[in-house]
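Notes from the 1:1 (GR / supervisor)

We went over the backlog. Supervisor wanted to see one worked example end to end before approving the batch request, so GR pasted a single chain during the call. The sequence is below; no edits were made to it. Supervisor asked that the structure be written out right there so they could see what the output format looks like.
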Amino acid sequence: MLVVLHGLEGSSESSYARGLAEAAARRGWLSVVLHARDCGGHPNRLSRRYHAGETADPGSVFAALVRRYPGLPLLACGYSLGGNTLLKYLGESGKKHPVKAAVAVSVPFDLQGASDSISRGFSKLYQWHLMRNMKKSLVRKFSEDTELFDWQRAIQAKRFEEFDDAVTAPLHGFDGKDHYYGSSSSKQFLKSIETPTTIIHAVDDPFIDPKLLPSKTEVSDCVTLEFPANGGHVGFVEGPLPGRLRFWLPERICEHFERMTQSTEAAD
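Structure output shown during the call:
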């Protein structure tokens, strides 16, 4: 059973989620996409949304899947924000969770650093696109007379850190964006991971300054770092011509899972 945690404003319709589900299906695996609150066209009825450090929801879904499909090894793959959440979950939980193996892709290990990176150069175009979608989600869920956060600050925000300070932090019990970023960044949890985990991250990712990537001394022995020079943010395309491009990441992820589960079974 493969569980996919999508990125910011993503869903089961995201191309990376569909590609991985198809690769899993070719191997006869079951797959599930965990929709974060308010994502995937399913509005959350509570006065909250989702954030990069929300680990209770994945934990509940993992537990439910284990009960529903007893005996199936549980695998998890997180992309971008979902990858940050997954790594934080693994580090917090130690061995007290049902995930047998994990992969995290294009992770914003340091949320403040990632916010700074995406606010520079061409990356600002991605920030504008994502911010527009986030504001649309707010308008669908809340009204301008809400007392849960500062509506005007939220609508006028141009940077992630402005939006997170105005909306994400107060909605989820943080004392501002610094508290949110400091508590939720996954980099500080990597040393505590006790599950076979592979992190795949392109050095040319426009969202993350390479200086923010973790070193081998910052992760546990259970974590494998794979940093190809090219791949962008959740891209990882190869091929000589536009019409003959291939997204190699889904197969690579499944191959990683096969090796990790085989080594885990051998150890058991």
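Supervisor's comment: Strands lie at 2-5, 31-34, 74-79, 99-105, 197-200, 223-226, 237-238, 246-247.
Batch request approved.
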